[in-house]
Amino acid sequence: MDTSELEPSKLGTKEHWDNVYEEELENFGENGDEGEIWFGKKAMNEMVKWVNQYVPSRSDMSVLEVGSGNGALLFALAEGRGKACYPAHRLLGIDYSEGAVQLAQSVAHSRNLTAVTFRVCDFLHEDPPLLADQKADQNGAWDLILDKGTYDAIALMEKDKNGRTPVEGYPIRIAKLLNPGGHFLITSCNFTDFELESKFITEETGLQYHSRIEHPTISFGGSTGSACSSVAFTKSA
Fold it and tell me: For residues 29 and 21, what is the distance between their CA atoms, to the nearest angstrom?
């Protein structure tokens, strides 16, 4: 599916996500409910397994999650739910909803993982803040960038007067922030593996296909497919 074929939805509005996280932040304060894990724990755990296999933990690595929500994916990496613990102080989650960042920070405090950093950032228009002692140049800044549903949400934003959606600028933003030799792992429920590859592997991005995660398949109406797709890309060293 081409991103221009998607109709705008409330899921593509900041107001919607502000309302969602306002409610989840209130619930966390009342009963400790950390909120929804987008695409569920199984999909998240598969992403963690992929990171463990292909991007081994290093003390100096830099990891960015775009649209980190309640922080569940970064906490899973920091807590070592795969084979290795990733250094909490080298993990950064950004979200354009202040409520999401407040929720993630509150959960981090409750888990004693306050070294994981969460910041408000509009990824399409702002560069993420750097970690302590992190350097950035024209070649990139991050060793690993993660996306679990954010590309999907941006694809549902309002189109401009020329019918273009803001998501069309997303792949090049990823490519510019990724270090040479770095990896980008994305999980989507709106786009197939092939569609993701066609959007991110372009002459402009310079990204290359790395691998994919095999998710369980489902059958409906004579067709078989996965509830979500996960594809990894790498930037040439």
Answer: 12
Whether the pTM exceeds 0.85: the reply is yes
CA distance 152 to 237: 28
User: Interhelix angle for 193-200 vs 170-177, to 10°?
Assistant: 70
Taking CA 176 as the corner, what is the angle to CA 75 and CA 66, rounded to the nearest 5 degrees?
25
Mean pLDDT of 111-119: 97
Q: φ, ψ for residue 191 (rounded to 5)?
A: -130, 145
Identify whether the C-beta of residue 107 lies closer than 8 Å to the C-beta of residue 101: no
pLDDT of residue 75: 97
Angle between helices 98-110 and 14-31 (to 10 degrees): 30
Closest by CA position to 195, among listed 159, 228, 237: 228
Is the pLDDT confidence value at 161 over 60?
A: yes
Bridge partners (DSSP) of residue 64 are 92, 145
Is it the case that residue 219 has pLDDT exceeding 80? Answer: no
80: Cβ–Cβ under 8 A, 6 or more apart, which residues? 86
* % of the chain exceeding 70 in pLDDT: 93
